[in-house]
Design a protein that fits this description.
single chain; alpha+beta; Ubiquitin-like (UB roll); Translation Initiation Factor IF3; 2 domains; four-stranded mixed sheet; two-stranded antiparallel ribbon; 6 helices; 49% helix
């Protein structure tokens, strides 16, 4: 169809002529309400953005001389973050002469890897970067999906409570009639 004829036909119908496939042979146009089309595209993009998962990297810091209680406390937080679907970066900071005993830091990271093995996989194995030795843990796929399912159930539970059926209200005009029938 000729472009002029298509434009006239679109104006007569009260819609816009929009080119949807400019690289096709011949180019493809569609007669649509362009404002409505943009609105629907915006809604689709917002819905996709709402469903996307953002993964943040949380960090726990150790020192070569970190005590057992401090280690357990930090490991507990790492487990919570991994349950929530976040990545965890475990870093050991060395100062001064501690740099000569890097094996102490490697020992802590190895122990952490073993303690988190049921919940996480190692994305970056221990390596030195300046005065820090670090490793990055990623939650295992199956664990993350279970945690997200539990989160979704918690979100839906209050909505179900609101949907409970309400009591039927009796109009005021009917109440006295029912009372007189009972007494008679």
């Amino acid at each position: 169809m000729d472009v002029r004829d298509a434009v006239q036909k679109a104006r007569a119908a009260g819609v816009d002529l929009v080119e949807v496939a400019p690289n096709a042979q011949p180019p493809v146009c569609r007669m649509i309400d362009y404002g409505k089309f943009l609105y629907e595209e915006k809604k689709r993009a917002a819905e996709a953005k709402k469903k996307q998962v953002t993964v943040s990297v949380k960090e726990i810091k150790f020192r070569p001389g970190t005590d057992e209680h401090d280690y357990a406390y930090r490991m507990k937080h790492a487990r919570e973050w991994l349950d929530g679907g976040d990545k965890v970066r475990a870093a050991i900071a060395f100062r001064g002469r501690e740099m000569t005993h890097r094996e102490l830091g490697a020992k802590i990271l190895k122990k952490l890897t073993e303690d988190l093995a049921d919940l996480a996989e190692v994305e970056v194995y221990p390596k030195m970067e300046g005065y820090q030795m670090f490793t990055i843990f990623v939650p295992k796929k199956a664990k993350v999906s279970k945690a997200k399912a539990a989160l979704n159930e918690k979100k839906e539970a209050p909505a179900k409570k609101e949907e409970a059926p309400k009591k039927k209200e009796v109009p005021a005009a009917e109440e006295p009639a029912a009372a007189t029938e009972e007494t008679a």
